[in-house]
Amino acid sequence: MLSALDRRHTVAPPGYSRWLIPPAALAIHLCIGQVYATSVYKNSLIAHFDTGQTAIGVIFSIAIVMLGLSAAVAGTWVEANGPRKAMFVSACFWAAGFLVGALGIATKQLWLLYLGYGVLGGIGLGIGYISPVSTLIKWFPDRPGLATGLAIMGFGGGAMVASPLSRQLLSFYDPGYDPANAGSTASGSALVWLFLTLGVGYFVIMMFGVFNVRVPAADWRPAGFDPAKVAAKPLVTTANVSAANAVKTRSFWLLWVVLFCNVTAGIGILEQASPMIQDFFRDNGTSAVSVAAAGGFVGLLSLFNMAGRFVWSSTSDLIGRKPIYLVYLGVGMVLYVLLALVGQAATALFVLLACVILSFYGGGFATVPAYLRDLFGTFEVGAIHGRLLTAWSAAGVAGPLIVNAFLDAQGKPGTLTAAAYRPALFTMVGVLAVGFVANLLIRPVPERFHEPASGRDGVEDAAQPVTAERSGS
């Protein structure tokens, strides 16, 4: 039965429409995007385990670190075995993470929650994140930015689905829990049932993606697609570079720095979103922001994070990958300065600045796979993407640490004002400046790192001559 998951059984037949692939990718990314919704039940876990915020918050950090590590380690395996087997393995690990986490909650063993949601779930995150993206790039060589934006938009939107769903499930399993009250906490049994429900439900949804994903035949091309025209754009190559060789190039590590800087700056706002808007408008003569309004602000940020993944990534197909990152990083610096200096002048101004910054954060995630395809080709782009995602793991630790260190030095939570955030925001300007310079230094990969033009293992090789088109325009 498991042989049906092999790559050779997933090659699309003649006439197969490539537009059937994005829904399969979304089925995976919408599920694993739940990782951004862990704050919904954070207070309930704190109360249940009778511990502090740091002990519970580290669950998210473990999951993000494991995402990057598993994507880096398993990237080559994903390319060799194909998306169907990789997505199935991802679904198994992701669901198992919830089930082991539920056992940890039921027995009040916090280490089981670390092992389950953090380690096992994080492995599912990493494998599930890269496999649909790699497949979409091969199906959309003419519009890689649009393709990756479609999938990674789902990751950003996963929290928008998971947050209200988790609140409603908790209120269903625990009638005493009030989803509209930020201070309300759910019982331990409700948390157990929540994790069990999410684990089973997400596994079923991810199976839709598993059995509907396909890879293009080695000689397939979109109707009317001419690789020579794409290669005429700056930094775009018709050659291919293996994952082992990619990490030997300067361009890979410069792009690593670019992604690290973009994510570090974005996650600094995302992680502090709710208290940040309340603190900015405390004791400055304007109306205080309520807990409910702060929650709405977080939802709006999630919307812009999701929309930016599609809009900006699609725009990169028109203006190029390097120019769009100059926008993310260069305009981002200006927006951070404005947020620090005049963000407290009006709530609408603060919200606008923060939302555009978060759209750049999402856009950076969605554009980077297409940037990798431009530089290294499609041969092992999933494996290269996996190695690059270690930048996300590092930024997931660095961003919150930088912001929290500055805030801890300024005072206690609940007493901070806009001025307390300025040192952290100006630091993020410096971080973005480093990324801006790194992006300017990226150059085409030297020919000595290129693979032979014949390709290997039936993987699409952009350097091969175009043969008969099959379908899927």
UniProtKB/TrEMBL annotation:
CDD domains: MFS_OFA_like. Pfam families: MFS_1. Residues 452-473 are annotated as: Disordered. Residues 1-447 form the Major facilitator superfamily (MFS) profile domain. One of its GO terms (cellular component) is plasma membrane. Keywords: Membrane, Transmembrane, Transmembrane helix. Coiled coil: none annotated. The chain crosses the membrane at residues 20-41, 53-74, 86-105, 111-133, 145-170, 190-211, 252-270, 290-312, 324-342, 348-372, 384-407, 419-442. It is a multi-pass membrane protein. Its main location: membrane. It comes from the Bacteria. SUPFAM superfamilies: MFS general substrate transporter. One of its GO terms (molecular function) is transmembrane transporter activity. It is found in: Cell membrane. This is Major Facilitator Superfamily protein. It comes from Micromonospora chaiyaphumensis.
